[in-house]
Write a structure and sequence with these properties.
By secondary structure, the protein is mainly beta. Helices cover 8% and strands 57% of the residues.
């Protein structure tokens, strides 16, 4: 009886510590979870390939990493894609590693919790959306096929996508940090507080420019481009798109 109970205890512990893959629909998925320390004001670096990235702030000096790997063809493919986490003083790096010279049909979706004041020094994916909520700081966000959303944040967040929209709603704009927003095939909307100032340079090749905020024209103005001063001026705000509209809106607090 004691041996049976001991064996049961070992099996139970293994089941708790391990995160086995399981089938879903027509494929397989596996969860990944890890929490690491990061003081307020630190930096986060994240590289992904296929999958979305969702970053949200909380009032803890920690980064919580939750990811779901999904494979459509084989459960073994899940083990070929690794998540590497490197923790240093004031810096956390998360990198999705795919095998070289070996095609695997695996996507990884991330949900990350970060200290409220943090630098997102580089958040990137290739096929997927990037969503950032309630972060005070700034950073660089990059995807190829997907939208970029920055909601209820403060700071300077540069964003770039090829096929997707960019939507930024900022409680405040950093006074000195330049911001660059670029899309090839997508619209760009920026919502700023009424007292926000910037040196604005906006251009859409095949789209219109609209603004709810007062701006002072500096140079030529056309239906798809504008160069001038927003409010009292400030850091450079450069907006570029080829196929899409540009809109400046007034930020309104979320209810």
């Amino acid at each position: 009886m004691r041996k049976w109970l001991a064996g049961l205890a070992v099996f139970t512990l293994a089941a708790i510590c391990g995160v086995p893959a399981h089938a879903f629909g027509q494929g397989f998925e596996q969860e990944y979870q890890k929490t690491v320390p990061l003081a307020a004001g630190g930096a986060l670096h994240l590289e992904n390939v296929n999958g979305s990235v969702d970053v949200r702030a909380w009032d803890r000096a920690e980064v919580q990493i939750y990811a779901v790997k999904r494979a459509s063809r084989s459960e073994q493919d899940l083990s070929l894609v690794n998540i590497d986490v490197d923790v240093r003083l004031g810096h956390v790096s998360i990198v999705t590693r795919y095998p070289q010279d070996q095609g695997v049909d695996v996507s990884v979706d991330y949900r990350i919790r970060v200290p409220r004041r943090v630098l997102l020094e580089n958040i990137s994916t290739v096929n997927g959306t990037i969503h950032v909520t309630d972060v005070d700081g700034g950073g660089k966000l990059h995807t190829v096929n997907g939208d970029v959303d920055v909601i209820d944040c403060a700071g300077g967040f540069s964003a770039r996508t090829t096929n997707g929209d960019i939507h930024e709603e900022l409680r405040g704009l950093t006074a000195k940090a330049p911001v660059e927003l670029e899309s090839m095939n997508g619209s760009i909307l920026v919502a700023l507080p009424g007292n926000a100032g910037a040196e604005l340079d906006a251009q859409s090749l095949n789209g219109d420019f609209h603004t709810e905020k007062p701006v002072t024209v500096n140079g030529a103005f056309s239906h798809g481009s504008f160069r001038g001063k927003l409010g009292a001026g400030g850091a450079p705000l450069r907006i570029r798109t080829v196929n899409g509209a540009i809109q400046l809106a007034v930020w309104k607090p979320s209810v």
